[in-house]
Structure formats: C-alpha cells, structure tokens
Amino acid sequence: MKVLLWDIDGTLLNTDRAGLYAWMEAAEEIHGTPLDASLLRFAGMTDPLIADITVDRLMNRAGDEGIAPRLLARYAELLPSWLPRRGNGFVQPNVLATLEALADEPGYEHALLTGNLEIGGRLKLAHYDLLDYFVWGAFADGVPVRRDIARLARAEAERRHGLEVELFVIGDTPHDIDCGRAVGARTIAVATGGASFDELERHDPWWLLEELPDPTEFIDRLDRQAS
Questions:
Q1: Which among 61, 85, 109 is the end of a domain?
Q2: Does residue 38 sit in helix, strand or coil?
Q3: Are 203 and 169 contacting, i.e. CB atoms less than 8 angstroms apart?
Q4: Interatomic CA distance for residues 219 and 129, integer angstroms
C-alpha cells in the first residue's frame, strides 16, 4: 500500500491568508491591543508552535501558560468566518484531478500530515470541498514538533497496512521534507507555497516540482519509485 501524506496549506490549497487573519484577530482580542503580524512566519510551522511564538514574541507574555490554549481555541472559533471572507483562495493546480484519480485506485490511500489543528485542517479542506478524499490524518493537536506528527502518521499507516507500507510526504516547505525523511518516507516537494524551488532544492527531496504535475505523470512516477 502506498500512503500519500499530504500537507494542507500551500500544498493542497491556498486560503488567501484566512488563517493568518483569524489568528491575528484572536491574538489581538486576547492581548487587547494591535500586534505586528510581520513578526510571524507561518509556513511549515505547527499551530501549537505558532501559538507559543505569538505569546512570546508578539505579546511579550512568555511564561503565561494559559494564553496559548486560549489563542488556539479562539482561532478555531474564528476561522470559519474568515475562510469565505478571503475571496481569492484556491485549490492548487492538479490537486483535485490527482485526488480524484487515486481515490479509488487499489494500492493507494490519501491521508494528511499537517501542522494544523485537526479542527482547523478539516475546516479548510471542507471549505474547498476536499475533505472527503482523505481517509485519516495526523494533526498538531498537542504535538508542536512536526517530526513527532510524522511519527504518529507512520504509526497509524503501519497499524492500518503493516510494516511494509510505503509512505510519500507531499509538502511545500523544508519542514515537510525534514519530517518525511525522519520517518523514512519519500518526499515530494512542490514550490506552490511557503518556499521557493531553489530553497526546496537545497533540502534534497526525492522529487522536486514547481507544482503538482498531471495525474498520469504523478502516478507513473510513484509506481516506478525511481530513486
């Protein structure tokens, strides 16, 4: 069985920064004053880590352990209202065709490996009509380190399909390449989100792409597993 572990933001879709707007509204509401969003770089980071950085660097309230959980909870409450308000979001090129082509293909399974909280990831995918393609997922709830999320994903894949399962991690940042490599997965990097082609190339993914190719090319490469 080949399990395709998909990242969400920048890989499957672009929400036109809906997550950032929901995040900053939550942070400013809790903090009580405007904050400088330019100090945050979201790409490839997990929601719990972003919460800690927001509390430490933007709010200057390091050590207040109660704020990060409040921030995560409020963000999840605000995200559904921001997704439709950001009108320029889109599904990345060839994603839908690839998901459809492999949905009923024997020997393949779509799953998620993401730094999103489960509720946030599901909200984003549902908004863009992609959620039903994914059988299961590994999310960042209580897991701030992306490698640890990848380890959870490998464990779940092995529970479902045995130790011989083949994993492919598909993402748009060096963090995705790193966590895929940490669990022995083949890494597919697409320069459609948080990192440039050249930046991704420096991290030596198994397959590097400007964007996801058409399904025929994609499936052919996975079937061949060329190294």
A1: 85
A2: helix
A3: no
A4: 22
Torsion of CA 129, 134, 138, 141, to 10 degrees: 30
Which residue intervals of the chain are DSSP H helices?
18-31, 47-53, 67-85, 95-103, 118-127, 146-161, 174-182, 197-201, 215-224
Q: Are residues 22 and 11 in the same domain?
A: no
- Both 36 and 144 in one domain: the answer is no
* Position 226 confidence tier, pLDDT thresholds 50, 70, 90: very low
Residues 137 and 78 in one domain: no
| 156 lies in the same domain as 104 | yes
Show Cβ contacts of residue 198 under 8 Å, excluding neighbours closer than 6 positions: none
Give the integer Cα–Cα distance in Å for 195 and 43.
8
| 54 in Cβ contact with 40 (< 8 Å) | yes
Confidence of residue 62 (pLDDT cuts 50, 70, 90): low
pLDDT of residue 194: 79
Asked if 127 and 204 sit in the same domain, the reply is: yes
Query: Total domain count for the chain?
Result: 2
Q: Which domain holds residue 48?
A: 18-85
Nearest Cα residue to 144 out of 43, 66, 79, 52: 52
Average confidence (pLDDT) over 108-132 = 97
Handedness of CA 9, 215, 174, 92 (dihedral sign): negative
Q: How far is CA 182 from CA 28, 107, 147, 175, 176, in A?
A: 36, 23, 7, 11, 10
Q: State the Cα–Cα distance between residues 103 and 191, nearest whole angstrom.
A: 24
